[in-house]
Every structure is written in C-alpha cells, then in structure tokens.
Design brief:
Rossmann fold, single chain, alpha/beta, 721 residues, 26 helices, 2 domains, disordered N terminus
Length: 721
C-alpha cells in the first residue's frame, strides 16, 4: 500500500498533492502555547514543605474538558496546563533524522508524526513470500501437512468460523446467558454468551507449550523470556507459565473476551504483560504466515484462475491494538516482543528505528530526584517515561520488526487513549482518521483504572470508532478480504482483553456494552472479604451515612443536597476545624468550591491543576488552622501522594476509586504532631449504587448488611487496643 494512504503521517509542505496533516496537529494548534521557561517545577518553592517533589504529567486533553466545567470561574492557580501536550515536541524537532525515517512536517504544528519510508517495500505483506529457510515456513508446512492440527488451532477455529445471519441477529438482540465457575488461581469466573452452544471452559492444571499451538519461534523463546517469573524449581510438566499466566493464557487462547480486575503493578503486572504480549504476537505471526503462504500459492497458480480460497485479510492491516497509559509501558511491550522473536543471541532480529524509539520512549534515571518518599505502588505505576500522549505502529515480518510503521502498514498499534483520541478526532473535523481500526482482531486495554484518572471519555470515544467499515479502500485487494470483514461483522470476531486494578461501573460498562465476541466473555468476579478499612492504624470512628437516590443519574444531585443539608451544618462550627473533604470527581469538586465561595466559608482547595506554590500555601494554611476546610481531589492524590498534615476531621464526599486510598488518607492523621489529644472524626457518604466501592473498603459482609439495613448510619472504629 502506498505511503500516502497513511493519514496519520504528516508529509512535507514541498509535496502539497500528498500532504496529510493529521487531526493530531489540528488539535495541538488550538492549544494555548506556553513559554518554554515556564513549568511547574520552576514555580517559587520558597514556601514548599517538600522541596524537589516532581510533578506528574496530566492528560492535557482531559484538562481542557474538565476545566470548562466551571463556566470560566476556575481560579488562576487551578487553570489546567496545556504544555503537557507539547512537552516533547521541541525536543523532537531538534533531533537529527535516523534510519531513513521521514519526519518532515510543519514546525508550527508542534509534534511530529513519523513515517518510515525506507522500509516500506521490505515490510509489505502483499509483495513478500515465505522464506524457505525460515522457521515460520517450516511451521506453516508442518500445519499444512497435518490437517487435524491445522483445524484444531484456536486461531484457525476462531477466524475461519462462518457466522450465519441468524446467529448475528441473536447476538444483537438476545440477552447473554451466564454461568459460574471457580478456578484455582483466578477464583470466581463468570462465563457469558449469547450463543447457547458454548460450554464452560475448565482450568488446565498443567499446560504443555507444544499443545498451545504457538507459532514456531515462540515455543523456544517463551520459556526463556518468562523465566524471571518462574520459581527456581518448576514442575517438569509446566516449565514456562506461572499459575496466573497459565489460567489467563488458557482463556486468551480460546479467543474469548476477558476482564481481569486484579492487576497489580507491584505483584502481577509484568506477568500479565508478558502473557498478553505472547498471545498478541502469536496471533500476528500466524495471520502474517497465512498471508505470505497464500501469496506463494497465488503466484504459482495458473493465470486466469479465480480462487476464493485465499481470503486471509481484513480491510486494513492492523490486527492488534494495545492501549496503555504511559510511554514506559509501550517501551516494555516492544522489548518483550523483540525478546520473543529472538531465538538466540546469534539470531538477532532486525529492528528498524530502534535507536530513535529508545530515545523517545526511554527515560533518564537522573531526571527523578532520589530523595522522594512515595508508596511502592506509586513508584511502580509512575516508573520511567510517564508521558501519556503517544502512538506507534509496529510491523512484523518473519525475522524483522519495523517501529514507527505507518498505521496502514502496521500489524500492532501501541497507543495511549489520548494518542488515539487526537488522531480519531471529532465529528465535523476534516483531518481525522479511524479507518485503521476497522479490522482490529485483538484489543488489549491494560491498566484501565488509570484512564479513570486521566480521561475516561477517550476510552469511550475509541470504543465507538473501532471495527467500523472504512471510508476509503486504502489499496486493499478485495479478493483477499475475509467475508466477515466485508459483512461488517468484525466486532463479533474481535477479542477484547481488559485488565484493571479494580472493579468499577464504568469499566464494567465497556466490557458489557462494547464487546460482542461470538465466543463469549469471561470476567473474574472475586468479592473482597476484608476491606481496606483494616489497614487504618489510627484510632478513629468511621461514620458511614447512607443517602437515598431514585436512580443512578440522580445520585450526583442527591449527594450534593445531602451534603449541604445534613453533613456540612455539623462542621460549620469553629470547633470542627481542620476538616479535609476528599472529592473523587473533579466536577463535584468544582460544584463544592463554588458553593463554599458563595457561602463565604473559610476554606482552601487543592486539585490536580493547582500550581505548586498554591498547593504549598493551601497546605500551610490548613496545617495552621487559618483555613477551616480543605477541598481535596482524588486525582491530585493519585498523581502526587503528598501527606496532608493537620487533619482532625475527615469527610469522604464519595468513596474513593482506589480502595487503598481510604486507608492512606485516614492514616495521614497520625502525621499531625499536635493531634494526639484531639478528637478525630471520619464521615463517609455512600448510596446503594456504591456497592462495589463500599465492599472494597469495608468488606462484602458489612456491605450486604449496610445496604439491606433500614438504618442510614453505621459506625466502625479502627485502631482500638
């Protein structure tokens, strides 16, 4: 396919007839430019109690949207910065061209979209054939010689299945039937499907790599790559998977959708990343091997022969889309993919643009001050390059990998939600593109919980534009396109793998409403027996106050009314000073801040957009008691993890998204030196729609009692001897 078909690339102004200026640039052009010398790190820090604390980048697109919620009344100190979107632009512009990469664009647009022209023909699926000496070729021949093995391959079974219109109609109209199963490591699983004939999958206690239908190189490379997670003495029958990986991969390999809400950056995050990289690469290698093999067959057939047996492609080439929050995650994924393709030290694969990739996705260890004290989970999540605005195409062909491949020449796309949002664009924009999402066969959304802290709208926007019929043909050979793609049934074949650190209604909604896999869905649904309240070490009475709401849409207003009518009057007295109000939603924070201003209450406030100097002032005023109330957003705590001193009274306006934040905030009270003799209080607002969050804090048994009880107030005490 021609280079001009890649609408995600920006061509030189000297070639106006093929100029492709992406919506990425258009959005950046609308951003308010920031002087180079200004950054949060350069704020006046003379009043800071924690000098040298680094600032974490925010989702610049999310900043624009939530910043407008206040109707223009946002304080000067709380104006969302726009510089994050262009923080790497000038550095990119100053770099020299490398590896034949065409990076020409209009400098006024700020950020460069890369197009690798040099390696285009080398990585074209249409013009290449199987290499005789390649291990891939042998694997393909081996499969062809054994029709039984070929037909039992999960990839072939899934992609070659021809759905009937009646089945498609059933999936669109009939409710899903579900059943439960308990697995040794994953725990409680819920299997659901619209097609009744699919049975529950049973856990395999022992897995032989040779029975997993891995493509040839992966059989030998996977055990070596995954060795770091395995115990020194492993079972002979299962030498290459951890118990968690084995059960996850068994589900992935059946091409069912999977939702796993127990991903932990500290414990199992890298295990999971390796497992889904193995599955994605296995899928891509099989799909590409099938195309290359059919290329040879078509080349050898007699002229004029019309054969419909070679339908082996989608309408566009990208097959796998990986959504990750930070550049560091993309860096680790690419390293895993390279390791899985390298059979040994002597057979290194050729990786195009590797040096440039390391420069842009890597990080300098010296950038982070070594004296910062943060929780372990914070260090794990925010390790490396935490820029959240990126996308990169990866093409894989036999022994070579091409980074920065144009999207329409890529097999795998790795991107952040913001990176996808800026190329998909919005309705009415001239320069937007989402055709490359039309034939995605595996969608992997990793660390979904972090997108709740960035901008969840970007995820929803992506889900609305995936697996749609493309607006342009992009040079595709329609005689090679699968019927499922031509029938616009791609979404019924797409496998979605969703990994999160928590259960959340918004994440559940994506899994339930945007996943249509004909094979069905598998969701891990373990209930928390002990809540995070058990981690509170200070002696503290926790008063949980239930508010009534008619439906989910009215709960926001009901919560606000309940707070100002029932809760706030109890804290207006000067004796209830040092009151911190924890607010998970930025919109609720804006609403409360405006109400406090209107009522002329003595308060200060900190949100994720507050400048560092203003944060220091607010913390000092609150500690000294000069301000009675402190409004405090969850996203600020997520990105900064400052210890707020001086808390005597704590109000959770809503239960925290991350259950461990509950214990962290409560335990901040012990940081107050003069608070030993004070009477500390903690009040929590909840409704029946907060069942998942409530269970994560107090445990499932208490949650059931609290939701069923007619009492609206429940008291628990922690830290008692």
């Amino acid at each position: 396919q021609s280079e001009t078909s890649d609408k995600s690339s920006a061509e030189s102004d000297s070639e106006p007839e093929v100029e492709q200026v992406s919506v990425y640039h258009k959005l950046l052009a609308t951003l308010k430019p920031c002087p180079e010398s200004e950054s949060e790190e350069e704020e006046d820090e003379s009043e800071s109690e924690e000098d040298g604390e680094s600032e974490t980048e925010m989702d610049s697109e999310g900043s624009q949207e939530v910043g407008e919620a206040d109707g223009g009344e946002e304080d000067k100190n709380d104006v969302p910065d726009q510089e994050e979107a262009t923080d790497t632009a000038e550095w990119m512009l100053g770099q020299e061209q490398a590896d034949g990469t065409d990076t020409s664009c209009d400098p006024s647009h700020g950020v460069i979209e890369f197009t690798d022209v040099k390696h285009e023909s080398e990585f074209s699926l249409e013009t290449n054939f199987m290499e005789d000496e390649s291990g891939d070729c042998n694997a393909d021949k081996r499969d062809s010689n054994s029709s039984q093995a070929f037909s039992e391959d999960p990839f072939k079974q899934h992609m070659d299945k021809e759905l009937e219109e009646k089945e498609v109609e059933e999936m669109s109209t009939l409710p899903r039937t579900s059943s439960q199963s308990k697995w040794p490591r994953l725990g409680q699983l819920t299997f659901s499907s619209s097609l009744e004939k699919h049975k529950i999958l049973k856990a395999d206690r022992d897995v032989d790599v040779k029975q997993l239908y891995l493509h040839k190189p992966l059989e030998s490379t996977w055990p070596k790559v995954n060795k770091q997670f395995l115990p020194s003495v492993s079972k002979p029958s299962d030498p290459s998977f951890t118990p968690l990986q084995r059960e996850l991969f068994c589900i992935m390999n059946t091409y069912r959708d999977l939702f796993y809400p127990e991903r932990n950056a500290l414990t199992n995050g890298e295990e999971i990343r390796h497992a889904y990289c193995l599955h994605a690469l296995n899928h891509v290698l099989k799909a590409n091997a099938q195309v290359l093999s059919n290329n040879a067959k078509r080349r050898d057939q007699k002229p004029g022969t019309d054969n419909d047996d070679y339908r082996d492609q989608g309408l566009t080439r990208p097959k796998v889309l990986m959504i990750v929050p930070f550049r560091e995650c993309a860096l680790r994924i690419v390293h895993i993919l390279i390791s899985l393709l390298e059979v040994n030290d002597k057979r290194k694969i050729d990786v195009s643009n590797k040096k440039r990739f390391k420069g842009e996705f890597g990080s300098d260890p010296e950038e982070k001050p070594p004296n910062l004290k943060r929780p372990e989970d914070y260090e794990a999540i925010f390790a490396g390059n935490i820029d959240d605005h990126f996308r990169i195409g990866v093409a894989i062909l036999q022994k070579s990998m091409r980074l920065y491949a144009p999207f329409y020449s890529s097999d795998i796309i790795i991107a952040s939600p913001l990176g996808m949002r800026t190329i998909i664009g919005a309705e009415g924009e001239k320069k937007r593109d989402f055709d490359f999402l039309s034939s995605i066969e595996i969608l992997i959304i990793d660390q979904a919980d972090i997108y709740l802290m960035q901008n969840w709208e970007h995820v929803l926007h992506l889900m609305k534009h995936i697996n749609l019929l493309p607006l342009d043909s992009h040079g595709v050979d329609f005689s090679r396109v699968r019927m499922l793609n031509l029938n616009n049934w791609s979404k019924y074949y797409r496998q979605t793998l969703l990994f999160s650190a928590l259960q959340d209604p918004q994440i559940n909604s994506v899994f339930n409403k945007h996943c249509f896999n004909y094979v069905g869905q598998v969701a891990v649904r373990n209930v928390p027996l002990r809540g995070s309240i058990s981690h509170v070490v200070v002696q503290l009475p926790h008063v949980f106050r239930k508010l009534e709401a008619e439906n989910l849409t009215s709960v926001i207003d009901a919560r606000f009314q309940f707070f100002i009518d029932k809760v706030l009057p109890e804290y207006r007295d000067a004796i209830m000073s040092h009151t911190l109000i924890y607010v998970p939603s930025y919109f609720d924070y804006v609403r409360l801040r405006n109400y406090f201003k209107k009522e002329e209450l003595n308060f200060t406030h900190i949100c994720e957009y507050t400048k560092k100097a203003a944060v220091c002032r607010a913390r000092r005023f609150f500690l000294k008691g000069e301000k009675q109330f402190l409004l405090f957003t969850e996203r600020f705590h997520f990105y900064k993890r400052y210890t707020i001193k001086g808390i005597r009274n704590l109000i959770f306006y809503e239960l925290p998204t991350y259950s461990h934040f509950y214990g962290e905030i409560c335990n901040m009270m012990k940081a107050t030196d003069n608070g030993v003799d004070a009477t500390w209080t903690c009040t929590v607002l909840y409704s029946k729609y907060d069942a998942q969050k409530l269970a994560a804090v107090v445990g499932i048994e208490r949650t059931a009692q609290m939701l069923q009880s007619k009492k609206n107030v429940h008291l628990f005490v922690t830290g008692e001897n």
